[in-house]
Specification:
Layout lengths: L6 H33 L3 H20 L2 H15 L3 H24 L1 H10 L5 H14 L3 H16 L3 H25 L4 H12 L2 H12 L15 H31 L3 H38 L2 H37 L3 H33 L3 H21 L5 H27 L5
Helix pairs in contact: 1-2, 1-8, 1-12, 1-13, 2-6, 2-11, 2-12, 3-4, 3-7, 3-12, 4-7, 4-11, 5-6, 6-9, 7-8, 7-10, 8-9, 11-12, 11-15, 11-16, 12-13, 12-14, 13-14, 14-16, 15-16
Length: 436
């Protein structure tokens, strides 16, 4: 075993494996949502949960950088043993997230109506999506607090605790899904209520974290707004918001465009995108490991440690992709049949699944390097690469408008290829600098 894995390999795995386990339970909630809606016997419910989920994900993923930004600042401060600055960063990120949460809740009706106005699905699908979103949006403040807590645990390399928080919340969500829909005969509203209740269970872990850290987190609150520190957090958050917003706009427009090809294509693409989210959340385990180790290396100012961190996390990202791809190809038919017994939908999923296999391969580098550059806190670079890649995606979508679902999948594949290529090129240029 020692010949196969170095001590640093084991260090990466110790960080990544708990995160892979916890991350892969996140899209499993969406998978169970699909199963519960499939249980109701209509593609309308699957399509509605697909649109509802993509809209709420649009909001959450646009601000999903909160966890990564927390990890980046915490890991660099931990590496430099700057614990006062660490907790100062946490407070600043909490203030920013609370402002975002309040703003979203105040304008929730406008956000939902505008989002659904872009969808061309049937009236029944739109109405059910709106029901889901009107309830689900209230979980956002709890989700931001959860992400900050998990980001703190990841940044301090306590990934077992990060895993426990995520797995507990998602397990509660799945159980409540089944109770509300299967036993209490709720429809799409039951899925939304289950998510809200589950997300607020994070309060248990916040109380636990406070009792453990209360002697270390005392700080002069006036200092939070002095100097460049708070501005630095705001700038990093704005950069990452733009980056995440464009990513979710691309994925959301992919689903919206799917609706234009019919309810079957919409349902098929929704199911395939959920499989992609399971993959991406699993791969994020190594991206998070990159954030932690790269940030720690920067804090310690050790170039050899930095290079080893980048190489090792990249190596394991490729290993994970191969294992997932082989396993998914072997089990995909059974998984599709488990989700739905509607023959027309099954045939559609099997027709388009080849594109998903290609995206698994191409997108791996982009996900890994996202983690590397977040650890380096090079948020402007991530923003600029996403602007270029997203711009090309929308240009291609306009060119192939109404040309078929296969070409729609091709545009998504090109989007991920360009991100991987540009980030890879940026890594080479970054590492040539002696100051890194």
């Amino acid at each position: 075993m020692d010949r196969l894995f170095s001590n640093f390999d084991f260090k990466v795995l110790k960080i990544a494996i708990p995160l892979i386990i916890s991350n892969m339970t996140i899209p499993l909630v969406g998978f169970v949502d699909n199963v519960m809606m499939g249980y109701l016997g209509s593609v309308v419910y699957i399509g509605a949960i697909g649109i509802g989920s993509i809209v709420i994900s649009y909001i959450l993923f646009s601000f999903g950088f909160i966890k990564s930004i927390t990890t980046g600042f915490v890991s660099q401060n931990t590496g430099a043993n700057a614990f006062r600055e660490l907790f100062k960063s946490l407070y600043q990120i909490i203030i920013i997230s609370l402002v975002i949460s309040i703003t979203i809740l105040l304008f929730r009706h406008q956000i939902i109506n505008v989002a659904l106005s872009f969808v061309s699905g049937s009236g029944e699908i739109i109405e059910n999506s709106k029901t889901y979103l009107e309830i689900r949006v209230w979980s956002i403040p709890a989700i931001f607090m959860r992400d900050i807590l998990i980001g703190y645990y990841i940044g301090t390399q306590r990934t077992i605790l990060a895993m426990l928080v995520s797995v507990f919340i998602n397990f509660i969500n799945i159980i409540l899904d089944i109770i509300f829909v299967y036993y209490l005969n709720y429809s799409i509203d039951g899925v939304a209520i289950a998510s809200v209740i589950a997300e607020y269970s994070v309060i248990i872990f916040l109380i636990f974290a406070y009792t453990k850290e209360k002697n270390r987190i005392k700080i002069d609150f006036k200092s939070l707004f002095y100097g460049n520190s708070f501005v630095e957090k705001i700038n990093a958050n704005v950069d990452m918001f733009i980056r995440s917003f464009i990513l979710m706009t691309c994925l959301s427009y992919f689903i919206i465009s799917s609706a234009g090809y019919g309810d079957i294509e919409l349902a098929a693409n929704t199911i395939l995108l959920n499989f992609f989210f399971i993959f991406s959340h699993g791969l994020d385990g190594f991206a998070h490991a990159s954030e932690v180790l790269v940030g720690d290396a920067i804090g310690k100012k050790k170039r050899d440690y930095l290079l080893t961190s980048i190489f090792t996390t990249g190596k394991f990202s490729l290993y994970f992709m191969l294992i997932y791809l082989i396993t998914f190809m072997a089990l995909s038919s059974k998984l599709i049949l488990f989700i739905s017994n509607v023959n027309e939908l099954i045939f559609a999923v099997e027709e388009y699944i080849i594109w998903l296999y290609a995206i698994f391969i191409i997108a791996t580098i982009a996900f890994w390097l996202d983690g590397v550059f977040i650890g380096l806190l090079k948020t402007k670079l991530l923003r600029n690469v996403m602007i270029i890649s997203g711009g090309l995606f929308f240009l291609l979508v306009l060119i192939i408008f109404n040309s078929g679902n296969h070409l729609l999948w091709l545009t998504l594949l090109i989007f991920f290829f360009l991100r991987s290529f540009l980030l890879g090129l940026s890594l080479v240029n970054t590492l040539r600098k002696k100051s890194i």
